[in-house]
Write a structure and sequence with these properties.
mainly alpha, 7 helices, elongated
């Protein structure tokens, strides 16, 4: 009978002991948010460039026409989105490989992300990009 009490004590103790959880590195999450911010900043900069330069505007439109059906009807927007997506996916792949085994301070990188979003939003605001483009 004492053996069963001892077994119960061990079961209760095991139930109270937290199970070991696998620690996950934050590098992949940082790669995802930073690449998203870089993609949005790219969109803002390409938008600014298309407003400032007719030649750049035509080049960007040509990029969209390379693969997007109906791109001729929507103008350089197709190329702006294409370049933004290429930067987003490309930097995500590179940063994921570089940071996949690293544990980084997510709070610090979230601030970097939010600053990047702020920069992109400011550059996309018409009074700002029209001023910077010289209109």
């Amino acid at each position: 009978m004492s053996a069963t009490l001892r077994e119960r004590d061990l079961e209760v103790e095991a139930a109270r002991t937290p199970s070991p959880t696998r620690h996950r590195e934050s590098g992949p999450a940082v790669a995802a948010i930073i690449s998203a911010a870089l993609g949005m900043i790219t969109l803002a900069l390409v938008n600014l460039g298309t407003q400032a330069s007719k030649a750049f505007n035509e080049w960007v439109h040509g990029i969209g026409k390379l693969w997007m059906p109906g791109a001729g009807g929507i103008g350089p927007y197709s190329g702006k989105q294409t370049l933004s997506l290429l930067v987003w996916i490309g930097t995500w792949i590179v940063l994921h490989v570089a940071l996949r085994n690293r544990d980084l301070n997510l709070g610090r990188w979230l601030i970097v992300f939010l600053v990047g979003i702020g920069i992109a939003t400011t550059l996309l605001w018409p009074p700002v990009f029209e001023y910077l483009a010289g209109h």
